[in-house]
């Protein structure tokens, strides 16, 4: 039936607006890849870096860069503050040669040292009968899964048998600030009683059965990270338990002959576990960065990299100089800002709310600092120290005072 003359045409339905595809959520791995650079392979996070990170859990800069897999050595060079880290080629070759000697013949010498130091009550390992499983697999996830399977099989094989198993360069996974880290100890030994022992092989010497205390301490902190990662695997394996003492193998005196010492890492393990738990989650740090922030060493200029690094909060301390590749850059920034952190954590803790050297000197001379009251205990102590200094200088001859100044 047609419309009558003069009637209004029937309204036409408006076309529906085109559907707008919602942006796909960005996973943490994708976000970290964007920060690192889409074409840049991640720099592996090892136990030494984790031990240093655990020693300074408040440093968001190191947590983010390590989590994203940024090569901090190359980044420090691009920023103009290279760090003199790393072994010499000679030391590297000597270390590799010593490790190969310790593990030769199916780890015969290594197993002898371990049984001698830590095998009380267990049958002596027979050369040629120690299991050395193949741990090769595709990718770090595959190698970590293959290591976990080998540990499970070795622990099951020890039930009612005098079986020893040596895992050479196993790969362990440990979640750090919401991101997985893959760690590779020199060796892990499964005892007949189900114990798992970490073995650390170092090239520094033991002279008269004693080694450099600072180097042993660094090795203990590194081994504690391996123990933590092993405990994650042991929680899922019946009958397994991780030994809190590790075997440290070093050259004896000035020879290339191996000797060993047992190092208790319970203290280092507890400290490392507590510090890693305190780390700010990496996604929380990444969420605070300005849009377009990138640490891509291949595409970003030095100025862009500097701005990207400075966008992440740092917690510098003089101890960082011995452990972090970016320490010289962070020290320069702390000094230029007059931050009291450059004087050490102890000084920083004593000064309370006074965060800059300028504020400290002003308070000591009777001035005011923003947000700090005149009766603040820190201000009172500074002014008392300044008064004592002035009194001491008044009693010294003028020539000597001029030299002191």
TrEMBL record:
Stretch list, region Disordered: 1-23
Source species of the chain: Streptomyces niveus (Streptomyces spheroides)
The protein's name in its UniProt record: Secreted protein
Domain of life assignment: Bacteria
């Amino acid at each position: 039936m047609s419309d009558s003359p003069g009637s209004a045409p029937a309204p036409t339905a408006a076309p529906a607006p085109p559907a707008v595809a919602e942006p796909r959520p960005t996973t943490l791995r994708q976000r970290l890849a964007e920060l690192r650079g889409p074409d840049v392979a991640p720099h592996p996070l090892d136990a030494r870096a984790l031990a240093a990170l655990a020693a300074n859990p408040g440093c968001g800069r190191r947590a983010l860069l390590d989590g994203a897999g940024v090569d901090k050595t190359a980044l420090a060079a691009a920023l103009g503050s290279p760090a003199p880290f790393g072994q010499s080629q000679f030391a590297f070759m000597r270390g590799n040669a010593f490790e190969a000697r310790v593990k030769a013949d199916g780890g015969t010498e290594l197993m002898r040292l371990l049984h001698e130091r830590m095998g009380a009550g267990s049958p002596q390992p027979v050369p040629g009968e120690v299991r050395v499983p193949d741990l090769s697999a595709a990718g770090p996830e595959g190698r970590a899964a293959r290591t976990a399977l080998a540990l499970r099989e070795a622990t099951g094989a020890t039930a009612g048998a005098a079986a020893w198993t040596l895992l050479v360069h196993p790969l362990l996974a440990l979640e750090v600030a919401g991101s997985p880290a893959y760690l590779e100890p020199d060796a892990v030994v499964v005892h007949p009683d189900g114990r798992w022992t970490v073995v650390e092989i170092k090239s520094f010497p033991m002279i008269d059965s004693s080694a450099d205390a600072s180097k042993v301490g660094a090795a203990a902190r590194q081994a504690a990270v391996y123990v933590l990662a092993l405990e994650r695997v042991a929680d899922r394996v019946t009958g397994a338990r991780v030994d809190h003492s590790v075997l440290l193998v070093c050259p004896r005196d000035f020879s290339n002959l191996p000797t060993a010492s047992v190092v208790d890492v319970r203290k280092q393990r507890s400290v490392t576990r507590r510090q890693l738990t305190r780390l700010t989650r990496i996604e929380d740090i990444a969420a605070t960065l300005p849009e377009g922030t990138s640490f891509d060493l291949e595409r970003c200029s030095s100025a862009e990299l500097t701005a990207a690094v400075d966008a992440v909060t740092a917690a510098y301390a003089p101890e960082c100089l011995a452990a972090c590749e970016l320490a010289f850059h962070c020290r320069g920034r702390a000094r230029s800002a007059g931050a009291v952190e450059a004087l050490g954590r102890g000084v920083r803790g004593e000064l309370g709310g006074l965060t800059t050297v300028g504020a400290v000197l002003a308070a000591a001379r009777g001035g005011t600092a923003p947000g700090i009251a005149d009766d603040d205990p820190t201000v009172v102590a500074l002014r008392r120290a300044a008064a004592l200094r002035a009194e001491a200088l008044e009693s010294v001859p003028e020539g000597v005072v001029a030299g002191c100044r």
